[in-house]
Design a protein that fits this description.
single chain, mainly alpha, Serine Threonine Protein Phosphatase 5, Tetratricopeptide repeat, disordered N terminus
Amino acid sequence: MGALQMWFVLSGLVISAPAIESQSADQARIAISRASALAIVPRIQRADYEGDRAALKRLYGDLAPVPQDDKLASRVLYWRGFALWRRAFNGFNDNADPKELEEDMQQAVIEFDGSSAKDPEFVDAKIAAGSCLSNLAFLNRKDPAGSQELLGRAIQVLKQAQAAAPDNPRLLWVLGPNRWYAPPEYGGSQEQAMALYQKGLDSVRAHKEDTSDPLQPTWGEPELLMNLAWSNWKRTKPDLKAADEYAQTALKLVPYWHYVRDILIPQIHAAQAAAH
């Protein structure tokens, strides 16, 4: 939690009133515009799929300074957090330094919390924060007390999201791994995790979300397909045919998805070859 604590310490620095007024005026003049944000967000999503961690870090910085308008600021903060969240996820695949993954996740939580503060009804910011907190709990598993504190925060924020939007496909995507790894006495099972993924997939396909605002998150279908592919491969009794079909369907939606194309599908094909 060092980086997170450091951020709070730095945010408490005493600055004279004239300096604050000057800084706010400067930020109002140079804050990122909606048009600039609209151009950057698709690049963030593509960099995520391509596994381009350097680009994700750069694009995170490009989405600044945050505008003063609460609604726009909430979405800009969300996509800033998203860039770091996915930079960390791609880092897991690249065996990146766990400390670096932790720092990305911690800063992502700060961005998502800021997004929620600007728009308390924006459920996707809570969903993303819950995912980051769950992963931080995993990264801090050698510190049981710290890990439990992080997990408690994750559960709280995900319960809030679940109460507000139980069928949100991105929520179901985030809840799935928690259900997969949870002990049976805590309601966990492979079958329940896969049922959540399928429910999310059905939801995103049956109810195409409002896309009138491109800054509103609508991702989810490829990710749910990917998790169903991985789950069918990793389940106690693997269904490698289903795993390959889900992965190929995900790749059709995102042909440049590095993880699915270059990592997951070859792993599934290797498992199929070993089974014969």
